[in-house]
Structures are given as structure tokens and as C-alpha cells.
Amino acid sequence: MVQPKIRNMEEFAAVSGISRPTVSKYFNDPDSVRPSTRQKIEAALEQHDYRPNVFAMNQNRRKTKNIGVVVPNLADPFFSEIGRRVELACIDAGYSPILLSSHGIPEMESDNLESLRSLKPAGVLLAPFGRLSDKDAVQAFDRDFPLVLFDANMSDTGQAYFGTDNFQSIDLMVEYLCRSGEPPCFFEMKSPSNPNANKRHQAYVESMERHGQTPHIFQAEGEGWNFEEIGKVEGGRLLASNAFKTRTVLCSNDRLAIGMLSAAYALDLRVGHGPGCHLRIAGHDDHPFSRFTCPALTTIAQDYEAIANRAVRTLFEMLQVDERLPTRAEMLFEGRLVMRDSA
Amino acid sequence: MVQPKIRNMEEFAAVSGISRPTVSKYFNDPDSVRPSTRQKIEAALEQHDYRPNVFAMNQNRRKTKNIGVVVPNLADPFFSEIGRRVELACIDAGYSPILLSSHGIPEMESDNLESLRSLKPAGVLLAPFGRLSDKDAVQAFDRDFPLVLFDANMSDTGQAYFGTDNFQSIDLMVEYLCRSGEPPCFFEMKSPSNPNANKRHQAYVESMERHGQTPHIFQAEGEGWNFEEIGKVEGGRLLASNAFKTRTVLCSNDRLAIGMLSAAYALDLRVGHGPGCHLRIAGHDDHPFSRFTCPALTTIAQDYEAIANRAVRTLFEMLQVDERLPTRAEMLFEGRLVMRDSA
DNA sequence: ATTAAAAATTTACGCGCGTCAAGAATATCG
DNA sequence: CGATATTCTTGACGCGCGTAAATTTTTAAT
How far is A333 from A164, CA to CA, in rounded Å? Predict the structure, then answer.
């Protein structure tokens, strides 16, 4: 630190007593040099805080140490949570995650992928919009870079996909609700953009039929990402007009449920499974705030940790062997029933 | 598009009929070339989707078009919301925002600044931890790059600071609460990391004294970012033991309030200002979920938009004239009282 | 048309590092 | 100890672009 500043790898190689090409090799992969020389370099590193110029590094390098992470909307706590875990996993692996949010705008997803192109990422983790994604753009990107999808699936796109088994999770919830009270109706967005919503719809119908019950679907008008507001307004209308044929409502996701809980409270309808309660409301996702709703929300916890870790791990395995997967991997993790007070 | 791919600026200059140095100039600043040549370049751009290599671009360039945006914790909806706005404002201005979260870990803030150094950012927008920030590291960074702080202030650090006037906003809330019912006590974290918390504490005391009332402070044990949980546990304990000397509680921030609302619900205490209500609870920040709590939370809305825009604008003004501000700018925006049902 | 100013071109160099080939040094093993 | 396999050094080239100086072309103004 006391020495005059090191300007480039040439100078750093000089003070560390190692040739520049070897130093270059070290920075690419510290394990690729002999332990004795690694020690010399690392000793020098502690004395002369030198760090290679990332721009010069990446210029000639085919693949950088950058990992793109693209989520549809960071303002949604679900994505900030799972994005957070993915980010940390990348850092642990010695990569530089670049977190990009599409701010709820599908077109921006393509923009983000386009921006990533110029950063020559070693790989990309994408939680796509799904139906609203530009499938051609994503598939084109998939051809040029190692791409792993998570949260939302897109057929024949990406080298792998990791998400929650909505059929298992919804069935788990339907089973619980049927066993413990009236069979649930289903509350969802009318035109959801996320493919999970469609799967959950289908899963609900199938599960209800398997239980010998008649499915009842209620759909909320509205576009965009304001799920709580939509749940509150549309759910409130349905509650006020007594439209539900049952006193148990399964919401397609927690954010809708949070809105509906708010509406129920305003209508003085006591939500829960205890005596004196008017209706039960359940959600899906174990949203970070679902523990603090009134009453606390019964929901399905997605295995964030497993999804994030497996997606990252799979990507890194591809990077190691430096080839595409022989066959598209697809793994669904089970949801876990979280019983709280609302249902 | 039909032509063979352009490999570099040399080839692109050839097909556009302009010399490479001029093309280079164009990409630095499209307005720096004659309109007629700009048209030629842009015409060529539409035919041969060429984009300059960012790494080669930034290698020799002193300042890049990168803007660093560092927030303490993206998992907090407050920061994901304000980070979102800052990001979009940067994109509008033709810069590339790089959003970094410190994941609630103060040491990671310094790491993030260190990472940013190697990206040679044109400027950085930082929402610091405050007391827990490594002040020396931040100030050192301030000397090397244009730095603007927002949300949390640090004395003599950064070229400018933009945030909310906690004294104004807390006074507004205290005034309202006193006028409409019992004077509030104050509920906060015992050892808050955020400087805003200290200001709010002080603002509460001063405001109460100005109103001729005796301030009462209640502090919650607990560390970390689990404010809702802390609010629920500690707030619940205080409510259950009837420790509050008043039936109006002003929480230092919405997340604590959300936790306390949850505890109150569990205790069957009706919150609100109407008849039959046991207590009033108010918050601060207009957290995205405060509209959907039960009851909806009365709070102070921070002017996210203004804070984000002014911070970004101030930074860009510095970049334009390419010099530090003659004097450290500091501007506080007023909070807005949002009256809902909880108080 | 003349002239000065502005902009574009030509030529050339350098940035910091990746990477390759050939040879020298070192390590590993029987 | 010698033979072979690793690893390192030396020297050199190139990546794609920024940028500077000198020259030529274009534009604007008289």
C-alpha cells in the first residue's frame, strides 16, 4: 500500500516476481497455477492493492464472469426475495451477478436481454413473463448464451427450468381446505400473464374433481401488477354481493389474497377457521408479508431456496463442462402448506 | 440485416461511408456530428444492427455511461420502489444504471462501492446505511467519483443529499394525532441503524413538547431488518401488558406499524379512530402495503418521485459541467399526511 | 467568389489484457 | 539419479476502440 500505485498487470507482475502471462492465468482461475506461485501472487496482492481492469479483461475473453439475472418486477417482494438469493449464490461462486428488473413491462424483458448481450455474460438466469414474453427473442438469446429459467416456464426455451409444482401445491391446499371445512372456490385474475396462474387454475379444477367437488371460478378484471388493489376491489365486490357459493376462497396468489383480506376487513367479515368466522381465505406463495396480514394468511410456501440454488447450480454445471445440456432439464419443487389463521 | 455481420467499428464505418473516428464520435455523443452525417450513420445502423463493444469502449474512456445505484436492502419494498424510480430515470437520460443491493449487510455496502470502482461509473447514487456505513470508505469513494446520497444522510459525505424532512413530517403527524384524539406515544427500534430513525425520535419529542404534551417513548429490542416481526413481537408484548399510557401509537416506520397491527389483531384489539376502537396506530413512509393493512394504515407518504428525480437530476447536472458542486447541496422534501382508517 | 470556421478524414499510437509458441525452469516418479 | 510431465518465462501479436495531429473537405459568412 505504501508503494507507488500499480498501473497495470505488467507492473504488478514485476513486483510479484511472476511473469505477466502467468499472472493473467491466475486471475482467470487461481487454481490453474502452481500453489507456490499462487502464494507469491497473493502475497503481492496484499501489499499492492492491484485489480485487473475489467474492461480490458473482458474485451478479449469470450466469456466473462458476469451472470445476468432478469426478473419481471423487483417491486414484487416475491421476485426481490428470489432475486436476492440468486444474487448471493452467484457471488459465492465467484461470479458477478447483474440484476435487471423489467419493471413489469414485457418489452423491457427483451431490452434487458439485449443489454446483457453486450456484457457477454457467462450465463443468464431468467424469470420470464411467460405468455407476454417475446418468445422468439428469448429463444434467440438461448441459442447464444447458457440460459436457465426459473419461476415461470416457457416450453422449449432455456436449457433448464426450476419452479414450483403448482399441481402438487394447489392439490395440497385444496385437500386441506376440503378436509377442514367447505370446499374452496377459486379467485384469480381474468387474464393473467404468468403461466403459473394458468397451471394453478387447471390444478384447482382437477383437484376439486378428484375430491368429488364442483369447481367454482371467480375472475377479477384488471391488468397490470397491482394485484392487491385488484384483489381488494374485485374481491370486495364479490364479497359484498355475496357472490361466492362457499365460505372458503382459495386465491391464485398471496397478493390477491392480501387485497381480499383487506376488503373483508372493511366489510367487517371475520376471516378465519375459528368459531364466529365468516369465511376462510387462503393464498399461494408465502409472500413475505403473509405472516403479518390480519389474520395471518394460510398459504403455500414455495421453496425459494431450493429453486434459486438449483437454478444457479445447474447453470454453473453447464459453465464448467462448457456445453449445453443434452436434454432440457425441468424440475419442480414441492410447495409446503403453511397453516396460519386465515383458513 | 441481410448483410454479413459487422465485426467492429471499422467495418461499420465502411458500410456507412463515414470514417471510423467520426463514427466513434457519434457513439460518444450523437449530437457532436453534423446532422447529415448523423443521418448516414443512423441509416446504416438500421440495416446492420451493429453495436460498439462496451468493453473496448470503456477501456480508454475516462468516464463511462454507467451509473451505480446502491441501496441497503432491495428486499425492503421501500428501497425497491425508490430504486426502481432511480433506475428508470437513469435509463431515460441515456445511462446504464447498475443496481446493487447490500442485502442488509453494512460491510457489503463497501464491497459494492469497491465493485463499482472497477466499472468506472460516471456517478453513483447511494442510499447509505448511515451509522453502520463505513464512513471512511464512502468518503474515499466520494473523492474519486461524483456521489449523491439519498434517503439517509451522512454529514460531509457525498456532493448532495435528498431525503424527507422528518421534522416536518413527524410534526405533521403529531399535530394531526393530537388534534383528533389522544396525543401519541412513540414506538421505535432501540438501536436503529438508519439515521432517519434518530431524527424521527427527536422530531417526535420536540413536536410533543411544542404541543405541551409529555413524550413517551417505547423501544423494541431486536436487530436486523425484520421490522414487521419485531413490531409484532415487541409491540404485541406492550399491547398485551397494557404498557402504553395512551391509546395512540406513532410508529417510527410503517414496517413496525404493520407488525403492531398484526399483533393488535391477534389480541382482538380493534384499531382505528371510529367508535368502538381500542387504539390508533400510525406509521411513516407510505409503504406499498400500508394501503392493504387491516385497517388501512394512516401514515406519512414520502415523496419518492421527487427524491429520486432530484437526486438523479443533480447527479446529471454535475456530470454535464464535469465538476464537483461548489457547496454540498442538501434538500429535504415534505412528507404528506395520508389519512386512512388506522388513526 | 473569397475567406474563415467547422467538421470530417487520414494516419498513427496506445490502452490493458488474452493468448499463443518456443524454450527454460521446475516438479514428479520410478 | 535421470526421464518425463508440468509449469513458467519470454516475446510477440491482436482485440476494438479512444484519441491526437495534420490534412482535406464542407459549410457558413462576408
Answer: 5
Task: State the nearest Cα–Cα gap between A214 and chain B, in angstroms.
Answer: 31
Instruction: Say whether the peptide bond before residue A295 is cis (omega within 30 degrees of 0).
Output: yes
Tens-place pLDDT, residues B84-130: 999 999 998 889 999 999 999 999 999 999 999 999 999 999 999 99
Nucleotides of chain D within 7 Å of a protein C-beta?
7-12, 14-21, 27
* B56 CA from C17 C1′ (Å): 11
pLDDT exceeds 90 at position A258 = yes
In chain B, the domains with their CATH numbers are 9-52 (1.10.260), 66-164+304-333 (3.40.50.2300), 166-301 (3.40.50.2300)
- Residue A153 CA to residue A170 CA, distance in Å, equals 17
Distance from CA of A75 to the nearest CA of B (A): 5
Q: And the C-alpha cell for B216?
A: 413517551
The answer, for A228 touching chain B at a CB cutoff of 8 Å, is yes
How far is Cα B164 from Cα B302, in angstroms, rounded to an integer?
6
Distances (CA, A) of A181 to A184, B247, B311: 9, 38, 54
Q: How far apart are CA A254 and CA B179, in angstroms?
A: 37
Secondary structure (DSSP) of B276-325: T--BEEE-SB--TTTTSSSSPPBEEE--HHHHHHHHHHHHHHHHHHTS--
Give dist(CA A255, CA B262) in Å, integer: 17
Give protein residues whose Cβ lies within 7 A of nucleic acid chain C: A 7-10, 20-21, 24-25, 27-28, 34, 36, 52-53, 56-57, 59-62; B 17-22, 25, 32-34, 36-37, 59-60
The protein residue nearest nucleotide D6, judged by CA to C1', is: A34
